[in-house]
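does this look right to u?? zinc ion version
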Amino acid sequence: MSDDRRARAWAAAAAVVDPELPALTIADLGMLRDVTLAGDTIEVTITPSYTACPAMVVIGWEIEAALARAGLGPVRISTVLAPPWTSAWLSPEGRAKLAAAGIAPPPTAPADPGLFAVAAPACPRCASLATERISAFGATACKSLHRCLACREPFEAFKAHGDGSISNTASRDVLS
Amino acid sequence: MRPTPDPFTEALLARADDALVLGHRLSEWCGHAPTPEEDLALANLALDQIGLARALYAEVGAGSGRTEDELAYFRTDRDFRNCLLVEQPNGDFAHTIVRQFLYTAYADPFWRAAVGSADPALAAIAAKAELESAYHLRHASEWLIRLGDGTAESHARAQAALDALWPCTAELFEPEPKARLPDPVPLRAAWSATVDRVLARATLARPADGWAQTGGRRGRHTEAFGKMLAEMQSLARAHPGAVW
Ligand SMILES: [Zn+2]
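got this back:
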């Protein structure tokens, strides 16, 4: 019975979308870490993508509301930082939803980019790999701005963050 | 009666204050940056720093019984432990970029070293901070190279900013032997190597080490910092306890 309650709670929490990226759920983004039962209380554990992710408070409220709509509660939201979120936590569904929303998914296994050799995302419109980065910073912490050299359209990309290569810092070098 | 913070908490507070003060300075560019892309970039950098400050203040608060808001908004300048470098006014864009570069070239190896801390909460914060400091350093380095190796005007401004801010860098490496937190002294070699490599690409001259301006870590700050705090804290002090 409690397994069923936990599964329903997971399903409700997993359907909550990121207010800054409403095409994706927190499960797609890898921000939903765990749902556990502590007696009557359902504990939902989430993690921020970037330390300052301003959506965390709203995501907490949305989880409480989603569980309430499913007739579940009481709920406790807890936030963990470890292990740190990286873009490798994006699910395959999340990557497909990004592409469908016109946002280039991050390269899956970026080589250590050094200072200038940042892996170029494919154009979400024409799939060309001939793209250039306009800015490493976009409208939200998780996105960067690019331009396609083939079709000339500007586009947003979901940043490659961490993924083992940048954090493998023994050999990190600001100049490539 | 406020509990006396332990040395580890005091050292954490210094990093939290660095992050808040640098974040606030960067946020002052919002709406004023040279291009819309750079406006977004500086706002993103500010947000990262303020997020880091919040995570660290939460830890400091857990060790000293104070809330994030009390720590950020209800201390006076003498209670802040940030280094003098981060409180320097934005100046022109070159000053902001040089300040960002000199600080981040230190913060990046600092957070990388802190990932190995025996304190699990600090290690978790550091693991996120070092991922973020990597692209902060890249951004500042790219701009510094563009300014230094750009026009005669941008080169002169970048060199002037470097010369002006250089005396504030020695403070970053003051001995601070604290268990569970990286000792800044050995980080100087990594910092120095990064500085040399980027300055060479930027065709900028490394200033000579001479007189060093220190005091921030002991609560002795510049006049400009008092003005910054007055603005940053005015809303919270006008409406103490307000929530939104
Ligand atoms: Zn295209």
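Residues 112 and 165 of chain A are 5 Å apart (CA to CA). idk if thats expected tbh
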